[in-house]
């Protein structure tokens, strides 16, 4: 299914921007799945508590908020969970941009270009979120986040112009 969709995108038979919507959700979930694996394999807090995962993450956050030193693994897990949360918070903005761009009939090549920028920036962003545990590296992550915002903002402005005509 995914392979045939990729082939359709390459051949121009599929809308890349709309196809990026499930991919955007999948990319957002990867840091979550990865950090579940880490929590389980290293038995952080006894392992991942899937019966109430938000409480499990809240306990780690509470430990950090109380001033207790987190292990590198605990910090990594929290960054992964934060990356996932950011992805799911950002998804509605990207989805709205894709829908508006499609309704406004923005050129396919333009929407494809914005989609590639969006997906590439999100992949880099998630990698940096996990990899950059120090403050200095976090600024690079923030810069990449700004790049990931650009396509949606551009689509909103261009759709506003196109739909005003």
TrEMBL record:
Source organism superkingdom: Eukaryota
Q: What subcellular compartments does it reside in?
A: Membrane
Question: What Gene3D superfamilies does its record include?
Answer: Membrane associated eicosanoid/glutathione metabolism-like domain (1.20.120.550)
Report the protein name in the record.
Putative membrane protein
Supply the alphabetized keyword list: Membrane, Transmembrane, Transmembrane helix
Query: Pfam families in the record, alphabetically?
Result: MAPEG
- Where does this chain mainly localize? membrane
- What SUPFAM superfamilies would the database entry show? MAPEG domain-like
Q: Which GO terms describe its cellular component?
A: membrane
UniProt KW Protein transport keyword:
no
Organism listed in the record: Meira miltonrushii
Q: Where are the transmembrane segments?
A: 114-132, 138-157
């Amino acid at each position: 299914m995914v392979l045939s969709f990729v082939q359709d995108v390459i051949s121009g038979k599929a809308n890349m921007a709309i196809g990026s919507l499930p991919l955007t959700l999948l990319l957002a979930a990867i840091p979550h799945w990865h950090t579940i694996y880490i929590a389980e394999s290293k038995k952080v807090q006894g392992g991942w508590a899937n019966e109430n995962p938000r409480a499990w993450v809240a306990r780690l956050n509470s430990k950090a908020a109380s001033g207790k030193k987190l292990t590198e693994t605990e910090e990594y897990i929290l960054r992964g969970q934060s990356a996932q949360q950011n992805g799911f918070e950002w998804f509605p903005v990207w989805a709205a941009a894709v829908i508006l761009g499609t309704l406004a009939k923005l050129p396919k090549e333009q929407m494809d270009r914005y989609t590639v920028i969006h997906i590439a920036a999100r992949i880099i962003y998630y990698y940096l979120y996990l990899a950059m545990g120090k403050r200095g590296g976090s600024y690079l992550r923030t810069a990449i986040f700004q790049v990931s915002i650009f396509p949606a903002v551009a689509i909103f402005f261009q759709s506003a112009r196109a739909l005003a005509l």
